[in-house]
Specification:
Blueprint: E1 4-12, H1 16-28, E2 34-37, E3 49-51, E4 59-61, E5 67-69, H2 76-87, E6 91-93, E7 97-101, E8 107-108, E9 119-123, H3 127-136, H4 140-143, E10 144-147, E11 152-157, E12 162-166, E13 171-179, H5 188-192, H6 199-203, H7 210-220, E14 222-233, E15 248-253, H8 255-261, E16 265-270, E17 276-282, H9 285-293, H10 297-311, E18 326-339, E19 348-349, E20 354-356, H11 369-383
Parallel strand pairs: 1-2, 1-13, 2-10, 7-15, 13-20
Antiparallel strand pairs: 3-4, 5-9, 6-9, 7-8, 11-12, 12-13, 14-17, 14-18, 15-16, 16-17, 19-20
The structure holds flavin-adenine dinucleotide (FAD).
Flavin-adenine dinucleotide (FAD) binds near residues 12, 17 and 184.
């Protein structure tokens, strides 16, 4: 039998922006009935952790491994929130090694990537755990109903409330709606959700709300960077060649090298049991296409190991991999927004009682966790008095 649920506020998505929004909102609105709906099996979204069933004991951050705040000095809201996360010991300053490999395969120590400028932070546990801790800091268990493995495919608004329908036909009613993902607002929804109209456009036809029209216009020009991450569960005795005990070690490939090897960055992640996991990121189109079209993943995995070994051939810190390392591959169809960012002024429609947050809004943190957190904090401030 299909179920029917009614709430004061529903949040679609369980990534870090949703968790920040929910935790801040709950601090001020303890009596409201809230639900969070997420298609994944847990919280974290693109900043989450693969806890492998096949390879026991491994926790590899397969999306964002850490995050950087490039601009907190000029933003007190963001600064005080990051200070709170530090005080609660959810995060710590990340002083891991960051190397930039140049064309001659030599390491340079200068920080200059979009993911490493400013101050870097690391979750004290895994990245999924960070989102969980943020939301649990407000004793959310009693205050929020979580619906995991639930994909919203349709949304409707009548004057009273939002009506959401999941893929398996469950219905969720809510007076206010927060979308922490723009999937339901973007043309990629047509293919992914197999619908014939962008769900938000269907719910709010053109010329009913200028803000919504503008929002959808901006999103028409937003594109997404696909990525692959290769998760390497190394063999028993694999370690660095030197002594290094910090949680992560990052190698970025400078432009020409990235083109040649098709790797963007490589993050070594020390596990609780002292094993050393490796996550290789790639946004190379050719590599992504070869993954999509391959009938033989084993060949691709062998190629990754060959290239990894070639890249680190003369590196004094990194040992070679063997061909029997276990590898799993994660394909991110939309790892990061690109193109046009959406102005924060379009974040909330009073008429339709709908708000939006995530890394797809304008600002220094566009396309990164910094933007996700900041947009969630700003949205909560915008609507907190309305929903009291
Ligand atoms: C490989 C990779 C590396 C990255 N590296 C970095 C980095 O080093 N530093 C950095 O700052 N950022 C990095 N990023 C970007 C960073 O992960 C994102 O900016 C951030 O996690 C976005 O969080 P969010 O809450 O805005 O969105 P998301 O994490 O995307 O959350 C949205 C959630 O909504 C869910 N959802 C979507 N549609 C529906 C639906 N219809 N029904 C139910 N649920 C739905 C999704 O499953 C998702 O969990 C990286 C991303 C990837 C993929």
């Amino acid at each position: 039998m299909k179920s029917d649920f009614t709430y004061d506020l529903v949040i679609i998505g369980g990534g870090i922006s949703a968790c920040v929004f929910a935790s801040q909102f709950l601090k001020n609105n303890i009596t409201k009935k809230i639900a969070l709906i997420e298609i994944g099996r847990g919280l974290g979204g693109r900043s989450s952790t693969r806890i492998s069933k096949r390879f026991k004991g491994w926790k590899l951050n397969h999306g964002a491994p850490n995050f950087n705040i490039s601009n907190s000095k000029n933003n007190l809201l963001l600064k005080s929130y990051i200070d709170e996360l530090l005080k609660n010991k959810f995060i710590k300053i990340d002083d891991s090694d960051i190397f930039f490999l140049n064309q001659d395969l030599k390491s340079e120590n200068i920080k200059k990537s979009e993911f490493s400028c400013g101050v870097n932070y690391l979750s004290l546990n895994s990245m999924s755990e960070l989102s969980k801790k943020i939301i649990e800091s407000t004793n959310s268990k009693e205050k929020i109903d979580f619906f995991f493995e639930t994909l919203i495919v349709d949304m409707k608004f009548n004057d009273k409330e939002w009506l959401l329908t999941s893929k398996n036909g469950d219905k969720y009613k809510s007076k206010y709606l927060i979308c922490s993902t723009n999937l339901l607002l973007h043309k990629r929804s047509l293919k992914i959700l197999k619908v014939n109209q962008i769900p938000l456009r269907k719910a709010i036809p053109i010329n009913n709300d200028k803000k919504i029209d503008l929002l959808l216009n901006f999103l028409e020009k937003q594109t997404f960077i696909p990525r692959l991450t290769f998760l390497i569960y190394t063999n028993e005795n694999y370690s660095y060649s030197d002594y290094y005990s910090k949680n992560q070690r990052n190698f970025y490939l400078k432009n020409n090298l990235e083109k040649k090897y098709r790797f963007e960055r490589i993050i070594f992640q020390l596990q609780d049991n002292n094993k050393l996991g490796i996550v290789v990121h790639s946004k190379n189109e050719e590599l992504i296409n070869s993954y999509i079209s391959t009938n033989d993943e084993e060949v691709l995995k062998k190629k990754i190991i060959t290239d990894f070994n070639k890249l680190f051939e003369e590196n004094s810190l990194v040992q070679k991999l063997t061909f029997d390392e276990k590898i799993s591959i994660m394909r991110w169809r939309a790892s990061q927004p690109s193109g046009l960012a959406v102005p924060l002024s379009l974040q909330f429609s009073r008429k339709y009682r709908i708000g939006f947050c995530g890394d797809w809004f304008e600002g220094d943190g566009f396309g990164r966790i910094e933007g996700s957190i900041l947009s969630a904090l700003i949205l909560e401030k915008k609507i907190k008095d309305l929903i009291k």
